[in-house]
Amino acid sequence: MIYSSELIKGTLKTIILKLLRDNPRMYGYEMTQRVKELTGDKIQLTEGALYPTLHAMEAEGILQTESEYIGKRVRKYYSLTPKGKTKGEEKISELADFLETMKFLIGAQTSIS
Amino acid sequence: MIYSSELIKGTLKTIILKLLRDNPRMYGYEMTQRVKELTGDKIQLTEGALYPTLHAMEAEGILQTESEYIGKRVRKYYSLTPKGKTKGEEKISELADFLETMKFLIGAQTSIS
DNA sequence: AATTATACATCTGTTTCTTATGTATTAGCA
DNA sequence: TGCTAATACATAAGAAACAGATGTATAATT
Predict the structure, then answer these.
(1) Is B112 part of any domain?
(2) For A39, which of A59, A111, B64, B109 is 20 to 30 Å away at the CA?
(3) Is residue B9 part of a domain?
(4) Is the pLDDT score of A111 beyond 90?
(5) How far is CA A77 from CA A69, A80, A84, A90, in A?
(6) CA at B73, C1' at C30: how many angstroms apart?
(7) CA B66, B72, B73 angle in degrees (round to 5)?
(8) B99 within a domain of the structure (yes/no)
(9) Tell me: the pLDDT tens digits for B53-90?
(10) Which nucleotide is nearest to B10 (CA to C1')?
């Protein structure tokens, strides 16, 4: 099963922050592979969504970059700024809370007794 | 805490389907109140999002309506069509699965061992 | 030699929602 | 009684976020 795209919307930034909380630095392509691997192909980060988001987060001062050459090919590593670490904790716990609320909502009997 | 809006995006249809799976019929305003109540004000369905979505789902053949007059005021009740019941089961279990995957992703150690 | 994987990037369009606005009835309160 | 809040519907303009396509280029595999 691959989730319908609208479901994944809104979680991308938090996923990036989570990855970079656990890893000192990662590059874009690596993120797509890690998420794919961790979710058994259920979540695939598309490049058209990922790269603009990474750029935006860098512009916000949440992420910082360092480019390295691997042979002749550039690889752009991202890591959290201090601001990004704070933001990361916030967004991750917000998502955890949201997941619980949604789980309750889906599991609960929503009819009036 | 009220969740940042982007997090709730994509879950609206499934929430509607869940409510109407548990209740034979509901009207729009009632849905906003029930969700608000069930989530302790954490999720507020806005009318600008809700009504167009209800109309779209009716046009898709997922929902059917019956209007009633309460005094002089019209109240529009929504209920699931047979197609809607099938769709509802699908979307609800997809969301449940997604929540588990995200919970795992947030909880897991995403770094390489 | 050709294909696949790696690795970056941008752009157009679509979907989905937010915010604002509008209309009207009913209930509660001062 | 007059005012405000709640009930209940609706639409419309714009923003946000993403999908899908396309582009470039190097490296690895078959």
Answers:
(1) no
(2) A59
(3) yes
(4) no
(5) 11, 10, 15, 23
(6) 27
(7) 50
(8) yes
(9) 999 999 999 999 999 999 999 999 999 999 999 999 99
(10) C16
